[in-house]
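Sorry to interrupt, but I need a hand with the structure work. Can you supply me with one protein entry, sequence and fold together? No commentary is needed, just the two lines. Leave the record below and I will have a look.
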Amino acid sequence: MLTKRSLLLAAAAIVPLLDLSDAASAKDAKKLGLAVANLQADFFNQIKQSVEAYAKEKGIEVITVDAKGDSATQVSQVQDLSTQNIDALIYIPAGATAPTVRPTSTQP
């Protein structure tokens, strides 16, 4: 079982690895989808704020969705994010039994 600390560390480690920092112009701007389990929880809000702060430094647009603890809502939100041409996705599942996410693209 993941502890809050290990989840936060994992999220912090993932963001720099995304290598989306080459956004030189508006047409090259990168988009990051952030699917959060529940923004009412301070812990998830801290992750959101950290991701947004890092993305702002790098010129990355962040699209955040909040499942409010509902895994069915989150599945729908992730599907919606995939239609918005995101370059990467950070997925924090809404519960231990939340469905897994399959790749939304076959692009390299």
